[in-house]
Design goal:
The protein has helices at residues 13-23, 36-45, 62-71, 87-95, 108-130, 148-160, 177-186, 208-213, 229-233, 249-261, 287-292, 298-304, 320-336, 345-353, 359-373, 406-409, 413-427, 432-439, 443-457, and strands at 5-9, 29-33, 50-54, 56-57, 60-61, 78-83, 100-104, 139-140, 143-144, 167-170, 195-199, 238-242, 263-264, 273-274, 278-283, 307-310, 342-343, 378-379. It is of the alpha/beta class and 458 residues long.
Length: 458
């Protein structure tokens, strides 16, 4: 990393000397200010690349200086430093615009990594802001699509991948969150290392801690042997935590400590282990809404929400639905040995009109279903699954029905949805996470709906 200019605002001389020593090997130019007044003079004289800001200073509260920095043109990133037990103050600082926080006392490696991360994120923001708009790409790292929203996604993934910053992917089920995580991993210096993915919604709550951190033999009933867990398996690579907001609050606290320290304790063990992983997280919920509702820790949110990537739903991507459908048709036809080469006009109209609540995954499954169940040179509307028709069965696909009789052709949408879900669960042998993957929804959605249906029967 190029040499950076850092402003260290710390009133305790011994700590300022210690922090300088921590950063000595990084080659940064460090200017020290022991008061708010000295810090303001340094900022006016020459804006730094980053600020390390103690919140308790002899002439005032560091939060005031943070607000001034954030209000300035092109503000540098600010890392706030606060004493142990003042985490709520640090969270307040994050709300006010701080890039990260450190709780004193902290080790040298934590300071080095934190400074490196905020500098990389700042460089990423500058690059994205100044990147000239080039010709739109029709795809990137496994993604297919040329919509303007996807061009933004491609640029963020491309620029975020080489850094060590945590990437937080949001988007509806089926928009490609795991594909985004795989792209970040593949394009990063860790691309040759392991990529470990965990779906927090698909693992029972009493087992997820063991899945992440591992366990030792005898830790609980059924633990007949040591298990390394995802944290160790991802050492030197990337750990992808999908549907992160499904994780319970107690485990969120343990995950936060793992992120902050790089160490964890397997279930049933007494000694901590260290590992080197890059985190990519994803959720189909609004993470800030989960924080407000008390279901997701605010300090964990600010620790993970470093480089946000918002994947647009398919219904907002215009003609991307046709680009994707063509690609899925070519792939499925080749895999199944079918003759399909194109879509009929009525099929294209239906693909454009459908809202695709399951997004890209739903589209891919719809095309595969049509290819598996039929064989021709073109896909017609009648060949597409009934769910794509919004509950209206096309005439050619309505056995025994009269095309002129709407009452015989239209079924309630709730009935169509329930039938599709139950059929998927049955075809997957009762494996709800697998059925959810094919349907393009979260497993928790299927659990909730089936519980509600069971209650109706009761």
């Amino acid at each position: 990393m190029p040499q950076a200019r850092l402003l260290l605002v710390e009133d305790t001389f011994s700590l300022a000397t210690l922090y300088r020593e921590y950063l000595r090997g990084e080659g940064h130019a460090i200017q020290h200010a022991s008061t708010l007044g000295a810090a303001r003079e340094a900022l006016e004289e020459r804006p730094p690349d980053a600020v390390l800001l103690d919140l308790r200073l002899p002439d005032g509260d560091g939060l005031g200086l943070l607000a001034e920095i954030r209000a300035s043109p092109n503000p540098p990133p600010v890392v706030v430093m606060t004493a142990h037990g003042s985490v709520p103050v640090a969270v307040e600082a994050m709300r006010a615009g701080a890039s990260d926080f450190l709780v004193k006392p902290f080790p040298a490696e934590r300071l080095v990594v934190t400074v490196a991360n905020v500098l990389e994120r700042a460089a990423l923001r500058r690059e994205v802001a100044t990147l000239a708009a080039g010709a739109p790409r029709a795809g990137f790292a496994g993604f297919i699509g040329a919509a303007p929203a996807m061009q933004t996604v491609y640029r963020i993934l491309e620029n975020a991948a080489p850094s060590r910053a945590t990437v937080f992917v949001t988007g509806e089920s089926g928009t490609g969150k795991e594909l985004a995580a795989e792209a970040v991993h593949a394009l990063s210096p860790r691309g040759g290392g392991p990529f470990i993915a965990l779906n927090c919604a698909a693992i029972p709550k009493d087992l997820i801690e063991s899945e992440i951190f591992g366990h030792v033999r005898g830790a609980f009933t059924g633990a007949v042997a040591d298990r390394p867990g995802a944290a160790r398996a991802a050492d030197g690579g990337t750990l992808f935590l999908d549907e992160l907001c499904e994780m319970d609050l107690a485990l969120q606290g343990k995950l936060l400590r793992f992120i902050q320290t790089g160490s964890f304790v397997p279930v049933g063990a007494s000694k901590p282990l260290r590992t080197d992983v890059r985190f990519v997280c994803a959720t189909n919920r609004d993470p800030l809404e989960e924080v407000r509702a008390g279901r997701f820790r605010e300090d964990l949110y600010y620790r993970l929400h470093v480089v946000p990537v918002a994947l647009p739903p398919l219904r907002e991507r215009g003609e991307d639905v046709i680009l994707l459908a063509d690609a899925f048709l070519a792939r499925s036809a080749a895999e199944e040995g079918k003759r399909f080469a194109r879509f009929a006009p009525d099929a294209l109209a239906l693909l454009r009109a459908h809202r695709w609540p399951g997004n890209v995954r739903e589209l891919e499954n719809a095309i595969r279903t049509a290819v598996v169940l039929h064989d021709a040179e073109e896909v017609t509307a009648a060949m597409l699954p009934v769910t794509v028709h919004g509950g209206v069965v096309p005439p050619a696909a309505a056995p025994g029905g009269r095309a002129s009789d709407p009452a015989r052709r239209i079924r309630p949408l709730a009935e169509v949805e329930r039938e599709a879900i139950e059929d998927a669960v049955r075809l997957c042998g009762g494996n709800i996470p697998k059925a959810a993957a094919f349907l393009g929804v979260s497993p928790s959605t299927l659990y909730r709906k089936r519980e509600a249906w069971a209650g109706q029967r009761g």
